[in-house]
Design goal:
Layout lengths: L1 E5 L4 H12 L3 E5 L4 H4 L8 E2 L10 H4 L4 E4 L13 H22 L3 E7 L7 E4 L3 E3 L6 H5 L15 E3 L12 H19 L3 E7 L1 E3 L12 H10 L5 E2 L6 E2 L1 E3 H15 L7 E6 L5 E2 H12 L6 E2 L16 H7 L7 H8 L6
Parallel strand pairs: 1-2, 1-4, 2-3, 4-5, 5-9, 9-14, 10-13, 11-16
Antiparallel strand pairs: 6-7, 6-8, 12-15
Helix pairs in contact: 1-8, 4-6, 7-9, 9-11
Length: 346
Amino acid sequence: MKVLLTGSAGFIGTAIGDALDVAGHEVVRVDVMLPLAHQTTQAPPGTHRLDVRDAASWVDLLRGCDAVCHQAAVVGAGVKVSDLPDYAGHNDLGTAALLAAMYEAGVDRLVLASSMVVYGEGRYVCPEHGAQVPPARAVAALEAGDFDNHCPRCDRALGWETVDEDARLDPRSSYAASKLAQEHYTSAWARQADAAAVALRYHNVYGPGMPRDTPYSGVAAMFRSALERGEAPKVFEDGAQMRDFVHVSDVARANVRALEVVTGEGPVPFAAYNVCSGEPVSIRDVAVLVAEGTGTDVAPEVTGGFRLGDVRHIVASPRRASIDLGFESAVRPGEGLPEFAHAPLR
């Protein structure tokens, strides 16, 4: 099939483009080359340097494509309130403009890069009162070193469970709000345009080609950079925050599979799937695993610091993606994170 890939020069976009090439698909690569993400404005060979916010001006590029794989976005938690226009412009307006251009060009199949951040906090259970929706963690509690979410009824610390795609959506940052908006625009487009789309909710993506020391760097890359400087990786809170780390090669495979499913017979108009390893790991253990890969015994420094936009635990269920897409991760965090310590970065 012929696939237009936005954000094609990025960390994840590059891996997806390579996987599509290997699978024998024709790839039309598009990237605006934001300096913040790429630290250069020079597009790779074969890449159209275009802005999705101006997609109406490049409708002809879409004509003849079977599907679009939309990875272009401004990422990160959003450091300050003044970041809001960038998220709304590139992510919300960009997606809306792309969807309108796709309709004009007659392209009715889409795979959207979404994120675990649309969930906000994960799923919590009290041993006495069952499933609970905790309120936002109080600043005073965080400052006192109490990082857990507590049962609203008995104040016990809540335990975590895996989150499936039917969980409530509660974005806690500028970036999260923009990713949820992308999903809403896509769902509305699918109904109005008699089209079909899949949103892939990536969990913590890492692997070769990850950007180094930029706002687009993930925590694994930050830990690695600290180790390369001879410093201990600094871990926020108490390090017990639970996450799911998924290798970029698995994310690429999930996109190829989703494109094949969404362009097949009888797909639902819109569906969302977790893309994850299915093996939860604490943030402290991520630092330990990356350090193991460097061959050093540097222990992480648990700082007790915190960021107000962070959530305590968010761990995904991989079940629906396995059943509907036939996707399961191949790289286990216990193998991939130590290997990441010496993987090439950009």
